[in-house]
Design goal:
The protein is an alpha+beta fold. The protein is 29% helix and 29% strand. It has one domain: Roll (Ubiquitin-like (UB roll)). It is built from three helices and five strands; from the N terminus they run βαβααβββ. It is globular.
Length: 84
């Protein structure tokens, strides 16, 4: 199991009540399931609209179950942003 950091931005940060927290998971899907369990409610709704970067690489349309996490890695949770 890999351990790293999840960073929340904008609406995700507000909904989580923190800017970042640790993860312990093998895949992005596992990490997000743990986040949903730890923060039920608004963050779960916000995550439905978010895009994700894993170690600075966009996840895009890949299945979250196929996105492997790395030891010491970073997951960025990016809700839609307004503006240019």
């Amino acid at each position: 199991m890999a351990a790293g950091t999840i960073r929340y931005w904008a609406a995700a940060k507000a909904a989580a009540g923190t800017a970042e927290e640790p993860y312990a998971a093998e895949t992005l899907a596992e990490a997000l399931e743990a986040v949903r369990s730890a923060h039920p409610g608004e963050l779960t709704r916000v995550l439905q609209r978010c895009s994700f970067l894993v170690d600075e690489k966009p996840v895009g349309t890949r299945s979250h179950g196929d996105v492997r996490l790395t030891e010491g890695g970073t997951v960025e949770v990016l809700p839609p942003f307004a503006g240019g």
